[in-house]
Design a protein that fits this description.
Elements (H helix, E strand, L loop, with lengths): L1 E2 L5 E2 L5 E7 L3 E7 L6 E8 L3 H14 L2 E8 L9 H17 L3 E5 L3 H11 L4 H28 L12
Parallel strand pairs: 3-6, 6-7
Antiparallel strand pairs: 1-2, 3-4, 4-5
């Protein structure tokens, strides 16, 4: 057990946070380090059907000892939700029901554009860029969520308690 600055006891969370950039054809996947400070790209899942997609996610969750999941929420540039937002809310609810883990939705506006920019600047070929953009977008979503939570908690990431949405 660690103590926060007020002297109260809390348990350090164990496990990692999984970040997902969910599209109709692929799911970009990122994972946090054990302390929840940095995000790294894992893989891009080529979507097949819900059963196969969830079986792949289940293996990742088990293999990486995932304790929470962050799913990118597609919003319009105005911040309004649309049809895709509704689909992601349902996808997140299905994940939460299936895996019994906290699932957080996080604004993913411009993450794919930023991922493309980063990959273009690193001179990744167009063929490889298509495969990497979803994974890079998942990294950007997860990193942004972790940084926001760290700042909101006002303490170092390894000492914060999980919070609901």
């Amino acid at each position: 057990m660690q103590s926060d600055t007020n002297g109260s006891e809390f348990k350090r969370p164990t496990g990692r946070v999984l970040g997902l950039d969910v599209g109709s054809k692929r799911i970009g996947v990122a994972i946090s380090d054990p302390l929840g400070i940095t995000a790294q790209g894992l893989e891009t899942i080529r979507r097949q059907n819900k059963r196969v997609d969830f079986a792949t996610l289940e293996k990742l969750i088990r293999d990486h000892e995932v304790r929470e999941i962050v799913v990118g929420l597609p919003l319009r540039l105005s911040g309004a939700e649309g049809i895709q937002s509704d689909k992601m809310r349902q996808f997140a609810a299905d994940i939460e029901d299936r895996f019994h883990l906290p699932v957080h939705l996080w604004d993913e506006r411009l993450t794919s554009a930023e991922a493309n920019r980063v990959l273009r600047e690193s001179e990744v070929s167009i063929e490889k860029r298509a495969a990497a953009v979803d994974r890079m977008a998942a990294v950007l979503i997860l990193q942004s969520w972790m940084e926001n939570r760290s700042h909101a908690c006002g303490r170092s990431p390894e000492l914060k308690e999980p919070q609901g949405d």
